[in-house]
Amino acid sequence: MSLIKNVDRYFWVLIIIAVALGLAFPSYIIDYERFVIIILTVIMGLLFLKVDIIEILSQIKKPSQIVYISCINLILLPFFSYFIFKFLDSELLMGFVFLAALPAGVSSAVFTDMMKGKTSLNLTIIIVTNLLSAVTIPMIFLFLFNHEAGIDYLRLIKTISFIVFVPFVIAKIMKRVIFPRIIHSLQDYFNFIIISLLSVMIMIIIAGQADFIKLNIQDHLGKIAMLFLALFIFQIVSYFSVFWLKKGEKLAVANSNMIMNNILGIVIAMECFPREVMYLLILSLIPWNAMIILKHWYKRFLP
Prior knowledge:
Mean pLDDT: 80
Low-confidence stretches: none
Largest sheet: none
Helix content: over 70%
CATH architecture of the domain at 51-179 and 219-301: Up-down Bundle
Distance between the termini: 33 Å
Radius of gyration: 18 Å
Number of helices: 18
CATH topology of the domain at 51-179 and 219-301: Na+/H+ antiporter like fold
Number of strands: 0
Shape: globular
CATH class of the domain at 51-179 and 219-301: Mainly Alpha
């Protein structure tokens, strides 16, 4: 029982197992790809059950701080990436800029919660950046590449609403009106459920791209190394960009930048960008998972 309650200490083991299973047995797992968004929605609902609505509203009451953090995430980092990776060919450069321009992933709040960071701040960043990204991504590409990304805004809004707002409303009704006592009694087990679902989601995503990842892996090593560098830069820049905040809040900001919405990115890249951009987004799943594990270890050394 104590292992279940303290599973967040060993979450990295489950992630490694999930990645290994996804790569080893893709044919048995790939059929469940359609459930990824549903799993994400359930995870978000559980996070909203854990975090008090008052905490989220307290973050929104600081609009200048949220606007500043969103600008770092959605505007500064894409431009920063453009100048760092400008030596690459145009399609690869476009991929790194697109990666930096993605909004915070819903999974970032899960890991902020595990790292004892400010989850309410992370959830606020997720909501705001996902909404703003529908405007900022096309603007950035139009400015830097003179390339209008043909994003389906209606589909984007529907997806965000389904993943973020629907579980938010349901969770608050359950917590405040229907099952307040039951929800309170289950609080200690939410982390176990969340981490289990997250591991399953990662396994499914990896399985869906296993053939591409394993095919000519030697040819991808250089790109993977640059992706590690990019993710490291994203989190370090964002962490120290809010140097005046408490450590838990800085972790939330850094996680929201490093753990971006890859799934949304892959979908948009498939429909709107050159194939090389989509391949880079798929490869980003490797360092994305590895950096999460590494950060759980080295966060203790951050000020």
